[in-house]
Amino acid sequence: MSVIRLLLPAQGFAEISLNPKELENQGIAVITIEPNTTEPMNLLALDVVLIDGDAALPDNLDLIDQVKSIAPNSKFVALLSHSSAHALTYLQVGVTGLLRWFPDAAKLAEIIRTIVQGEYYLDQEIAQLLAMRQIKKQLEPFVSLSSREFDVFCLLAEGCSLQTVAAQLGISSKTVSNCQTQIKLKLAIDSRDTLTKFANSHGLIMHKGV
Predict the structure, then answer these.
(1) pTM, full prediction
(2) Residue 8's pLDDT is what?
């Protein structure tokens, strides 16, 4: 069994108790380095990058671009323990693994091998949530929202700011604000807190990780 090289950026994973030796026993060689100080030679034979999906999105997208420019065949796994707000964005930029929880070494090694083989791995809760959103947007009461308004609704419910929603959807903050107004009118919602509770009652947001 060939050894798989896993890059674990030090920044963002300080609270995760990962024992590299346990992964090495599973055939996974862990490289823990700061992305900004990475030399190209360190990434040439890289197989997988595990990123903190709840960290700053622009920083993670820059990291993905940086690794792709050096090791284009590398795969990416994102840990989304607190929010699914950026799940689709990560999939769109080439991330093929989305984790809800940080598994034990044996399970993580299994997931990494699946991804290295060119397959996708989506945590069941994340996959169910993404599928539920596609279904719910076509049913009452959300059928009254446009597709863009529904996307804005879900991101606002996840706690994203207007600026973050705008950046993720590629639209202006003014457009997001207008969508928010229409959402409140169409769904009879009067506050962000009410919007979040409404989304939660329809199974459209993830419960916070612990």
Answers:
(1) 0.83
(2) 80
Region 90-109: what's the mean pLDDT? 92
d(Cα 67, Cα 83) in Å, to the nearest integer? 24
* Max intra-chain CA distance, the chain: 58
Classified as helix, coil or strand, 71 is coil
Cis preceding-peptide flag for 141 (omega within 30 of 0): yes
d(CA 201, CA 203): 6
* More confident: 97 or 60: 97
b or e along 29-64 (b: 16 or more beta carbons within 10 Å of the residue's beta carbon)? ebbeeebeebeeeebeebbbbbbbbbbebebbeebb
Alpha carbons 40 and 46: distance in angstroms, whole number: 10
User: With contact defined as beta carbons under 8 Å apart, do 121 and 111 qualify?
Assistant: yes
In angstroms, the Cα distances linking 6 to 46, 186, 190 are 7, 47, 46
Confidence grade of residue 1 (pLDDT, cut at 50, 70, 90): low
d(CA 152, CA 180): 7
Query: Could you tell me how many helices (H) and strands (E) the chain has, helices first?
Result: 9, 6
Is residue 166 predicted with pLDDT exceeding 60? Answer: yes
- Please name which of 183, 149, 189 lies closest in space to residue 165, comparing C-alpha atoms: 149
Say if CB 207 and CB 162 are below 8 A apart. Answer: no
Q: Which amino acid is at 120?
A: Y
Give the three-state DSSP class for 147. Answer: helix
